[in-house]
From TrEMBL:
Region described as Disordered: 455-511
Transmembrane segments: 30-48, 57-77, 89-117, 129-152
Protein name: LCP family protein
Pfam families linked: LytR_cpsA_psr
Chain intervals with Low complexity compositional bias: 455-503
Keyword vocabulary terms for this entry: Membrane, Transmembrane, Transmembrane helix
InterPro entries per record: LytR/CpsA/Psr_CW_biosynth, LytR_CpsA_psr
Length: 544
């Protein structure tokens, strides 16, 4: 026989002794105890169960609240420090363990609350409802904490595999300068060739970003005086058409790796030196994105939304023994659309029928669209897929200990327009010139400095006479795979001239509008001139 309290009023207390209460009161009591366990874990035990357990649970609850308030204050006053704590190896491990323990503890408190509720005392039709609410609350609370611990574990593994353990970086001239390369190491290529080369300069205080894009076929890239390659190439990377800048990575990896002792990636170090010497800005770190895995990353994000200005071909395989390709495997139409990984990859890498500068503009657009789309909702719902893709395709020498500062800068940059300059058309010369063998490096460096100085205001267009020396024609031809459009191409739907010089006498009247069928027809007959004119706007793009 159970002991009863001496006081009659205590015995009739429906909260602690529900057996004396009416059925409606018992039902109300059950939901109140669940609510107490949700909003103030431990309070249900204090008022209706094991007071000792409840007081201990309340101490933990108040401690967690204090830590949460401190984290909020830190997020407002020093967000970079908070992110550094969350991304630090041992600190994140400790937080992960604490989250896991809290998840188990909160779940046990809910089960203890169920015992206090004493379901047999409830009406039969109420019991399933109480059980369902309990299950939902446990999933929302313990499940959320457990998921948070899981995300921290995934991020720890990802950050550990991607980022380096090197020394922290200090801003140069108030800016951080990072080299971003899109590497292509396909089966038909020898080694890795970074076909996408951009230097991203970020204001260390405001986070305002500026991107300088360098064409893959840029020649005579310069090296700073303190670069080990300056002795090898004192006049720049100038061995002819073979020495376009995207070949430097593999050249150094194979032949001059000893010039960068202790480096995990001598080719990347060499590319940093080349971009530094060319732009006159010190590049501090690099990020390489494997273009073969870029498709996986975009799919992990749920696609990327862009507003495309013109048609973009999906390049087919190369015709054996020639420098031409079979007709495209498909076409990406103009307009606002969400591209999956496959189409986003081709949108960023296609240069068939146009110049490399059209492709650079599209690459800049895709980069900006991905930054815009990488919001907290996307990260939370797709974090595992994004982290897994990033671990597979990203290589960098950015120090992990400084990750918080860089994430903080990225968050600041997210809401600001991306200022862009291309070391080539349209900022230097015109697309018809394709590229310049002997660039005016003094002009490039002065324009870069002027551009950085003017990023706080609306940038003024460069005078035509100032750009003229950069665009001067040269006797060397562009690399064979680069197909530049003719300056005077026939209008769409009119007679033209095929690539081999044969006159085109018939164009189906029903296909005179720009359609996939018409574009494919032009590709099949080899009318590169008309295609070049029709696709000349495919470098126009904005983030959707």
């Amino acid at each position: 026989m159970s002991q009863q309290p001496s006081g009659h009023s205590s015995y009739t207390d429906p909260v602690r002794y529900p057996q004396t209460a009416a059925p409606a009161v018992r039902t109300k009591r059950a939901f109140i105890l669940l609510l107490l366990t949700l909003v103030l874990p431990g309070s249900a035990q204090v008022v209706a169960g094991d007071r000792r357990l409840g007081r201990r649970a309340l101490m933990v609850t108040f401690t967690v609240w204090a830590v949460a308030v401190a984290a909020i204050v830190l997020a407002v006053t020093n967000r970079a420090l908070l992110i550094n704590i969350l991304t630090h190896g041992w600190a994140s491990f400790l937080i992960m363990v604490v989250l896991a323990v809290l998840a188990v503890g909160w779940g046990l408190l809910f089960l203890n609350t169920l015992r206090i509720i004493r379901p047999p005392l409830l009406q039969r039709n109420v019991r399933p409802l109480v059980a369902a609410c309990l299950a939902l609350l446990m999933i929302a609370t313990s499940g959320s904490l457990a998921y948070g611990a899981y995300l921290l574990n995934v991020s720890r593994q990802t950050f550990g595999s991607i980022f380096s353990s090197g020394p922290s970086l200090d801003p140069v001239g108030g800016r951080y300068n990072f080299l971003l390369m899109g590497g292509d190491a396909g089966e038909d290529r020898t080694g890795l060739r970074p076909d996408s080369i951009s230097m991203i300069s970020i204001d260390a205080k405001t986070g305002k970003p500026v991107t300088f894009s360098i064409p893959r076929n840029f020649q005579n890239a310069q090296f700073p005086a303190d670069s080990p390659l300056h002795e090898v190439y004192p006049d720049g990377y100038n061995c002819g058409d073979e020495c376009i800048i995207n070949s430097l990575y593999q050249t150094v990896t194979e032949n001059y790796a000893d010039l960068y002792p202790g480096s995990d990636d001598p080719g990347a170090e060499a590319m940093m030196d080349a971009v530094s010497g060319t732009l006159g800005l010190e590049v501090q770190a690099y990020v390489i994105v494997d273009m073969r895995g870029f498709e996986q990353l975009v799919d992990a994000m749920g696609g990327v939304t862009v507003n495309s200005g013109g048609w973009v071909p999906i390049t087919a395989g190369e015709i054996p023994g020639t420098n031409r390709h079979y007709p495209p495997d498909g076409w990406i139409p103009p307009g606002t659309q969400t591209l999956d990984g496959y189409h986003a990859l081709w949108y960023a890498r296609s240069r068939e029928f146009v110049t490399d500068y059209h492709r650079i503009a599209r690459q800049q657009c895709v980069q900006q669209a991905m930054i815009k789309q990488m919001d907290p909702a996307t990260l939370l719902t797709r974090f595992q897929a994004i982290a897994s893709a990033g671990e597979e395709i990203v290589e960098t020498d950015l120090p992990q200990d400084q990750l918080g500062s860089f994430v903080d800068l990225a968050l600041k940059a997210k809401g600001q327009p991306m200022e862009r300059m291309t070391i080539g058309p349209p900022d230097f010369g015109s697309a018809a010139d394709n590229f310049v063998t002997y660039p005016d490096f003094d002009l490039i460096r002065s324009r870069v400095q002027e551009f950085l100085a003017g990023t706080e205001a609306e940038p003024a267009p460069a005078p035509a006479e100032e750009a003229a020396p950069e665009a001067a024609p040269v006797e060397e031809a562009a690399p064979a795979e680069e197909a530049a459009p003719a300056e005077a191409a026939p209008d769409a739907g009119t007679d033209g001239e095929a690539a081999d010089g044969t006159a085109i006498s018939e164009v189906p009247q029903e296909e005179t509008e720009i359609t996939v069928e018409y574009l494919q027809y032009l590709a099949e007959i080899g009318d590169d001139a008309t295609l070049g004119a029709l696709l000349n706007n495919n470098g126009e793009c904005s983030a959707g």
